[in-house]
Amino acid sequence: MDRLIEAIRAKKNPTVAGLDPKLSYIPQSMLNAAYSQYGKTLEGAAAAVLQFNKGIIDALASIVPAVKPQCAYYEQFGWQGMRTLEATIRYAQEKGLYVILDGKRNDIGTTMQAYAQAHLGTTEVAGQALPAFAGDALTVNPYLGADGIEPLLPVCKRYDRSAFVLVKTSNPSSGELQDRTFADGKTLYATVGGLCEQWGADTRGEYGYSRVGAVVGATYPAQLAELRRALPHTFFLVPGYGAQGGGAKDVAPAFDERGLGAVVNASRSILTAWQKTGADERDYAAAAAKEAVRMRDDIVSEIGGIR
User: Fold this and answer.
1) Of residues 54, 95, 104, 186, which has the active-site annotation?
2) Is 104 among the catalytic positions?
3) How far apart are CA 262 and CA 259, in angstroms?
4) Are 264 and 235 contacting, i.e. CB atoms less than 8 angstroms apart?
5) Hey, what CATH class is 2-303 in?
6) How far is 215 from 201, CA to CA, in rounded Å?
7) pTM (2 d.p.)
8) What's the pLDDT score for residue 242?
9) Nearest CA to 153 among 201, 97, 216?
10) Distance of CA 213 to the CA centre of its chain
């Protein structure tokens, strides 16, 4: 997690741009060019997504420390979309960005190990260790308990990667399960948060945070504050800012006294900034950059800077 924190400190920006492109977000001229070359096919759609992503990455590389592709937006275009996902990861990393793969993967034993190798490590082929996606971090679902998390940890250590465990998510119905209380009086989300502290205990870095982070939504600021107090060594990935309704005051409790401890995600508000502001479609990336700067300044002013 130190690599992400160092990037946040260097850019004075605790935000991550979600790369969750829908075809409706992409300028029509860009779609037309891809369809002209590949047809109105999955390959044409995936090609347009890649060009759109490259433009966004070029515009944001000097502003944000990280990007977060959500795997589902690429899987919907089949293997062509997965090829675009891999190319997007490589391009972002070449531009110096930390890449959080939002796959919410979970299974047990060797199956979870395979997920970890695919998304964070390498795959052995005829004696060669080959990277498949090789992101810098992966979101994971803890519902299967330690059996679904522990196979991930050696891969994280070996390849200097991290994981973000779903703890208190930003969606409206999250409380149906996550707010349930056990006999000991602890909620499910607090229990999972405590496990994150345990799972990452031997991987704490220079800034005091471990490789095992937590996903905690901006739409529940009271729980965000509660978890920040309870989990001093767990770095937070905070969705829910912007289009989902969270603001700077809502995310502020995620941060420690140094202005560290969390990275806040926004996707739709950045990717569709050109449409919301009425900008020319040729200026879609510039509009995204302007919104990313606005978001950065909004949050940094609320938390009092990054030290």
Assistant:
1) 104
2) yes
3) 8
4) no
5) alpha beta
6) 17
7) 0.97
8) 77
9) 201
10) 11
Amino acid type, 289: A
Contact residues for 18 (Cβ-Cβ < 8 A; gap 6+): 67, 68, 69, 70, 102, 239, 265, 266, 267, 268, 270, 271
Tell me the one-letter amino acid at 293.
Answer: V
Residue-wise pLDDT tens digits, 91-140: 999 999 999 999 999 999 999 999 999 999 999 999 999 999 999 999 99
pLDDT tens-place string over residues 184-237: 999 999 999 999 999 999 999 999 999 999 999 999 999 999 999 999 999 999
Percent of the chain predicted with pLDDT > 70 = 100
3-state secondary structure of 83: helix
What's the pLDDT band for 246 if we cut at 50, 70, 90?
A: confident
d(Cα 68, Cα 106) in Å, to the nearest integer?
A: 18
3-state secondary structure of 1: coil
**Mean pLDDT computed over 23-45:** 98
- The encoded tokens of residue 181 equal 């209380």
Written as six digits, the tokens of 13 are 């920006």
Contact predicate 90/82, CB 8 Å = no
Q: Would you tell me how many other CB atoms lie within 10 Å of the CB of residue 112?
A: 21
Q: Average pLDDT over the chain, rounded to whole? A: 97
Contact 212, 165 (CB under 8 A): yes
Looking only at the bridges linking them, the beta strands covering 236-238 and 262-266 are parallel
Check if the beta carbon of residue 169 is closer than 8 Å to that of residue 215.
Answer: yes
Token pair 């037309």 is found at 32
What is the structure's pLDDT at 245?
76
How many Cβ atoms are within 10 Å of 128's Cβ, its own excluded? 8
Rounded distance between C-alpha atoms, residue 26 and residue 17, angstroms: 16
d(C-alpha 16, C-alpha 68), whole Å: 7
Question: 6 in helix, strand or coil?
Answer: helix
Strand partners, 140: 105, 165
Q: What number is the average pLDDT over the span 30-56?
A: 98
